[in-house]
Amino acid sequence: MNLAVQCRGVEKTFGSDGVKVHALRGVDLDVRYGEMTVLVGPSGCGKTTLLSVISGLLNCTKGQVTLLGEKVQQLTPRRQILFRRQNLGFVFQQYNLLPALTAAENGAVPLLAAGVSRRKAIAESKRLLSRLGMRDRLDALPKQLSGGEQQRVALTRALIHGPRLLVCDEPTAALDAETGHAVMELLAAEAVRPERAVIVVTHDNRISGFAGTLARMNDGRVVSVESQHILIPQHEVREEVRV
Amino acid sequence: MNFVAWKMLTGDRAKYLGLVFTIAFCTFLLENQTSIFAGIMKRTGSQIRDVTDADIWVMDSKTEYFDQTKRLKDTDLTRVRGVEGVQWAVKLFKGNPIARTLDGKFDLSICLGLDDATLAGAPRKMILGSWERLREPDSIVIDKAGYELLFPGQPLQLDRTLELNDHKGTIVGISDASAPFVSYPVMHTRYSQAVNFVGPERTQLSFILVKPQAGVNLLDLTKRIEETTGLRARTSEQFQWDCVVYYLKNTGIPVNFGITIAIALLVGIVVAGQTFYIFTVENLKQFAALKAIGVTNWRITSMIVLQALAVGAMGFSIGSGLCAAFHAIMLHYMTTRGMVLLWQTVVGTGVAIFVVIVIASLISIRRVLVLEPAAVFRG
Prior knowledge:
The complex is a heterodimer of chains A (243) and B (379).
Chain A: E1 3-14, E2 21-32, E3 36-40, H1 47-54, E4 62-67, H2 77-87, E5 88-91, H3 103-113, H4 118-131, H5 147-159, E6 165-169, H6 177-190, E7 197-202, E8 213-218, E9 221-227
Parallel strand pairs in A: 3-7, 3-8, 5-6, 6-7
Antiparallel strand pairs in A: 1-2, 1-4, 8-9
Chain B: H1 2-11, H2 13-43, H3 46-49, E1 56-59, H4 74-81, E2 86-95, E3 98-101, E4 106-108, E5 110-114, E6 126-129, E7 139-143, H5 144-150, E8 161-164, E9 167-175, E10 186-190, H6 191-198, E11 207-212, H7 218-229, E12 232-235, H8 236-250, H9 253-282, H10 284-293, H11 297-330, H12 343-369
Parallel strand pairs in B: 5-10, 7-9
Antiparallel strand pairs in B: 1-11, 1-12, 2-5, 2-11, 3-4, 3-8, 6-9, 7-10, 8-9
Helix pairs in contact in B: 1-11, 2-9, 2-11, 2-12, 9-12, 11-12
């Protein structure tokens, strides 16, 4: 079975002895390569915490997370960062673009962080942005872009280094319905690849139509998992992890 | 990522310029106050510095600074001349007669009586007239600032008459003597003439100016003169520092300036540090995104340090430039002449600004380092 992410009995507790908040209460979840896994659930059910744990931004209190075949929690902090840089892409709810950089420069940030020359990184970013329909907006600053355009730049930034797992946190929450649908179509078309897994966290039920696997969460647990349809047939994928 | 750090810094022009000009203002304040202080202190040794012919000053053993003179005996001059290593030694008189113009304007003056034969000890910068004319009867050379004080608004003119303690003096030259500590006119005349201006006293000799023989070590010679004569002998530089130390010890100037400089430093640290800290804190979300993407703490630290150094260098350069311009302008005014921007002040301020920037960076970096990248998911 081609699993990009495997969560077993994952628990996450915040706070000290006095006040403890159990954000995750034993989550079991499998995320497969080559499809989009959508996590839905009401606000406060633990979706974003689970996303943070899966992507290695938070350590779980109990349980085990295997990410791209690697037990990320066992890596040193520095190796964790390098692992994230090389294997993960992020799309945030509020885009989190750097306001001083142009669209092309924002898209190039992961390559710049990896030490690629500025000229090469920006050229690659421009190429990808053009493919996402942003050819005329390459030199625009984030504040000059619409929400949908900013999310395309964010998608470019998430994909430019060819990550094996794409993590999207409420990618349509700040967009109107039409733009949100367009962004999801783009995400499905550009991000889902046989060698890549995509996790989308949302409370927007309309997105579930794009899901290969739909996992419903409530009160810190995954309460149901439905395999709806496979967007892209499963292929053999590389098992090695680039660290 | 240096490129990203630079763009983050300069992207918001208002914030960027605010940061730069805060540091520029701080630099200006520090350099200006310390320079003015140093300039005032430097003035205490102006008349010593103006004497370029001799290298050693001999005085009474209890004399602590230039304005504190106890008359020496004429035989002291002979004894100093007899010390091994002395090429020549001449008399210098210092007194403070009242100078009065014919229309009644008067002021206390600093009157320096030069050796009649050699005129050794005169400042060599002359604006009008010549030192040779000092050999004429009743002749005096006055400094430009003193002239303008006694003859305000009038053009520089030779052969004007002054009364010095009711003795007639004729201006035969206008010198560019260094500004004294107190804004009195600085008069130069022959020793014998100066004695007349001040009035008969049993002994009139204030200082002995000494020129060492070639190759003689100045410090060795001063020690030898002291041992032989029982008088105090100081090199020009030592005597200038004696004056500075005296004023530092015995006046409120250092305390008052110290307070001003301390306040400038404190304001600089607080304002520059806080402004840079706020700038970084406002960018926390951006740093969190970078951390999530996989930018290491080390890289982020170097980005913040680069931003801090860039802002610091820019602000320091502008501040120093403004201060230099300020001093260049002030140099042309009679009351502030001689006020210079010392390189030591610039270096000292540079170090202070660097420390401020480093402290602000460290506090900011700490906030960024403890920042959880997961914060980027929190909307």
